[in-house]
């Protein structure tokens, strides 16, 4: 055996040895069969039909205009206030009448006020005068503290506008608000606090 062949022989033994070990290491281990998945189901609560949106009149952007001397003094146009309410009526009566006019135009039955909706509407009108959003409604819904003895449908519409006669028109011209006014909620009430209006409705 030459010196070169002796070196090769000593190298081949370890290579074969490691090859043998490698075969032992990569041998796939047996795995247990996967455990079956267990899906738990629970009875769900009734799904309440809650669609609500916020609506307000946009704030006008005032753009400064250059001063121009008028050639003649223009006659200011008189602004006509909303017509006075009839004796014994109120803003709430007017709004409820307009809501029922809209419902009749859609072939729907009239809604009527009750103490639950009117009390809650008054609370919400006060709340949105400080924070104009639906949080007070949605938080009570989540915590199950809406002030109704029971309900299957609850709705809310909000508006911010100076002219009460335009409130229902705003809601009619908004698809989400109009859909709320068409909902099967026999009890509805609208309350006002300054320029803020809250519409609350529910169905037992």
From TrEMBL:
Biased composition (Pro residues): 73-85
Family matches, as InterPro entries: CAP_dom, CAP_sf
Compositional bias of kind Low complexity: 61-72
Region described as Disordered: 61-90
Name this protein carries in UniProt: Conserved hypothetical proline rich protein
Recorded superkingdom: Bacteria
One Pfam short name: CAP
Organism of derivation: Candidatus Daviesbacteria bacterium GW2011_GWA2_40_9
Domain SCP: 97-181
